[in-house]
């Protein structure tokens, strides 16, 4: 008699246990899916802005379309979005963003002072027909100019971090263009 009573009870307890384990697994999958969706949305916002910085600092693509004030404004947007997104990404992603930004900008130059662009501006001045003399102050001194090749490498690291964060293990790394040899 005891066996006939215990068997259904054991099956019921095992069923409840399996249901709870299954529910936890489904919740975990749902959270992971939502996190990936959010990371992709953040990628959709940040990646084009990082690409604009890459272009500006390596003199490829749309670099002529951006003014120094546009680039400083872009830095502020990226900083805000990256800091807001930091809890949703591994710390290595945020470090890669920070490293890229530090190569592009010289910060903390004084109270109320904008970040300075760590790139040469003489060639930009020649190309831009509407160059404002006030833009000269946006640029770092020549000894503080970053190597465009290091900027390209840092950009690739950010893109790799994005890819890993959304589950793409074998991310394609299209060439980011070559850095022109006649940068002035």
Structural overview:
- This protein has 184 residues and is mostly helical.
- It is 61% helix and 2% strand.
- It contains five helices and two strands.
- A two-stranded antiparallel sheet has the order 1-2.
- It is rod-shaped.
Task: Give descriptors for this structure.
single chain, 184 residues, mainly alpha, two-stranded antiparallel sheet, 2 strands
Summarize the helices and strands and which ones pair or pack.
Layout: H1 2-58, H2 68-85, H3 91-104, E1 105-106, E2 116-117, H4 122-127, H5 148-165
Antiparallel strand pairs: 1-2
Distinct helical segment count:
5
How far apart, in Å, are the first and last alpha carbons?
A: 94 Å
Low-confidence stretches: none
Strand order of the largest sheet: 1-2
Annotation, overall tally of beta strands: 2
Helix content: 55-70%
Largest sheet: 2 strands, antiparallel
| pLDDT averaged residue by residue | 87
Overall 3D shape: rod-shaped
- Give the topology string: H per helix, E per strand: HHHEEHH
Portion of residues in beta strands equals: under 5%
What class would the helix/strand composition place it in? mainly alpha
| Radius of gyration over C-alpha positions, nearest whole angstrom | 25 Å
Describe what is shown at a glance.
With 184 residues, the chain is mainly α.
